[in-house]
Amino acid sequence: MKLLRAERELRAGGPLQQAVLAMLALRAGRRVGPDELVDGLWGDAPPNHAVGTLRNYAYRLRAAMGKDQDVLVSAQGGYFLNLPPEAVDVARFERLIQDAGDASSEGDLVKARQLYEQALPLWRGVPLAGVAGPHAQRTRDRLQQLHLDTRLAALRCADGLGDHARVAAELEPLLAAHPLREDLRALHMRALHRAGRTADALAAFTRARRVLADELGIDPGHELTNLRDQILTGQNPARPQLARPGPASAAASAGRPLARPRQLPPVPADLTGRDDLRQAVTDALAPGRDHVPVAVLSGMGGVGKSVLALDAAHRRHADYPDGQLYADLDAAPGEVLLDFLVGLGMPLADVPATLSARAAAYRSLLADRRVLVVLDNASGTSQILPLLPATPGTAALVTSRRRVLPVPGARRFEVPLPTEAEAVAMLSRFAGPEVAASAQERAELARLCGRLPLALRILGTRIAARPERGLAAMLARLSDPERRLTELRAGDLSVEASLKPGYAALAPDQARALRRCALLPAAGFGLPAAASLLNLPEPDAEDLLDQLVDAALLEPHGIDHYRVHDLVRLFVQQAVRREEPAGQTALTLVR
Fold first, then answer.
1. pLDDT in tens, 76-97
2. Is the pTM of the predicted complex or chain greater than 0.90?
3. For the range 354-362, what are the long-range contacts, defined as Cβ-Cβ under 8 Å and sequence gap of 24 or more?
4. Which CATH number fits domain 506-590: 2.40.30.40, 2.40.110.10, 1.10.10.10, 2.60.40.10?
5. Which end of the chain has less Cβ packing within 10 Å, N or C?
C-alpha cells in the first residue's frame, strides 16, 4: 500500500498501521468507529489496550503526513480521511467500471471499452500487499475477485466489438488460474467459435466437462450446454447480455444487479461415504414455492460439516442460477453483508453504514432472485439471522459446531462420525490404492483417528507422501497417546488446531468441567460420577454437561451418560497438565 503526496511516497508505517490507513481510505470522507477499526485489525483477539494502540497509529500517520496532518480527522472516538473518494485508486477503479457498465447497458460498447481501458491500468499487483489484519484479507479477496470480474467484463465488451481472436487468447491464462469458472469457459467457447475455430470451441467444452466432473463431481451448467448445442446445430450463439463486473449494474428494466456471484469453494474430489446424509441435505435445499428452505448442519470440529455442506450446495447449484454466496463466519455480520452486497452488484460507495440497513438492502437485492447462501462455522443465532434470505426462490445452508442453534423453520442435521466401514474407506481413498496394508491395519488406524474425517485425511495425506514406510510404521507412531495429536498434522491441517477454537470459546466453569471429564474412563460415564467429580449437585452438573454437548466437545450416550471423544480427550488432557495443579487433579480423582 502506498501513501503519496505530490508524487512523493510517504512512510505509512508497519502492517497494522497500514491497515488503519487502508480502512480509512476505503471509506474516504466517512467516519470509521473504534469498534470497527479494532475488529478490522485484530478480529476476535484484540490486545488489552487496543484503543490506545489505535491512537498511537493515528498519531504516527499524522506525523507521516507532515503539513497535511488535517487530512486525518478525529470524530467521536473514530477517524475519517478528509479526502474526496477520487483520491483513492480503489474508488476511481470502481467508478470507472460502474460507468463502463452503464455504457454497456446502453449498448455503447466503444465507450465501455475505453472506460475499462482506463480502469484496468490502475491495478498494480496484489491489493493491500503487506497490510495485516482480517479486514485487509477480506478486502484483498474482494478486490481480486472484482479485478477478475472486470477483466471478464472488458473481454466480453471486446468480443461484442468483434475482437474474437484476442479475447480467446487472453482468456487462456485466466482459465488456467480459474478452471472452475463456467462464465470464463463460456466466453472462451463463444470467442473461439466466432473466430472460426469451431473444433477448438467444442474441444473447450469437453475440457470443461472433464474438469468440472473431476473437481466438483458436476456436469456443465445450462449456459455451457446450450452453447455447445447451438454450435453443433450450426446456430450462431446468442451474444450474452453484457453484465457489469461484480459489483454489477442494475438491469435497466428491473432495477436490480446483473451480477451472479459464484462464491462456493470447491469440494474435494475424494469425498467418500455418507451417501444417505449427503442426499438428505441436498433434498432439504430443494427450492420452495412459499418458503425459504434452511438447513443447519452441526457436529464436532473436523467431522466434515463444511465439506458436506459444499457438496450439497454444488449439487443444487443449477436450482439457484442467480448466484451462490459463501461466507466463513469469522467476521462480524456487518462485514459479511458488505461482501455479499458488493458481490450482488452494489457499488461499494453505496453500501449502507449500519447493520440493519445493510440487512434490508441485502434482502431487497435477493427479492425475486434464485440465490443459495452458505454460511460456514456459525457460532450463534444472532450471527446468522441478518444473513438469511427472506423470499421464496432463495435458500440457506448453515454449518455450526453448536448442536443447539435455533433458526426458525430450519431442518437440522447432526453430522455424526462415519461408521467404521466408512472411516476405513475414507482412509483408503485418502492414502491412495498404491499403499499396501491389511484390512486389520487400516481398521486400527481408523480407530486411533477416532473415525474423525479430518484426522483420517491428515493421516492419509502423510501416508501417501511416504508410501515406502507402510502403514505399520504409522500405526506404531499413533499408538503412543503422547504423540498422537502431534502426528495428526499435515501442512495447514491439524486436529489440535481444529479443536482449539471450541475449547477457547468455553466459559471458565465449562472448561474446568471438560478438563475433569477427560479424567474419567474412555468408555463413558454417568451423571452421578460426573456430579461427584465436579463437586456439584446433579441438576447443576447436568446443565454444565449439556452445555459441553451443545459445544460438540462432549458426546451424549443415552439419557444421562456421556463420553469424551478420544482425540478431544487427548487434547483436553494436555490442557489439564497446563492448567490444573497436579495435587488438585489427584484430589479430584479420589473424590
1. 777 888 877 777 888 888 888 8
2. no
3. 355/386, 356/386, 358/334, 358/386, 359/333, 359/386, 359/387, 362/337, 362/386, 362/387
4. 1.10.10.10
5. C
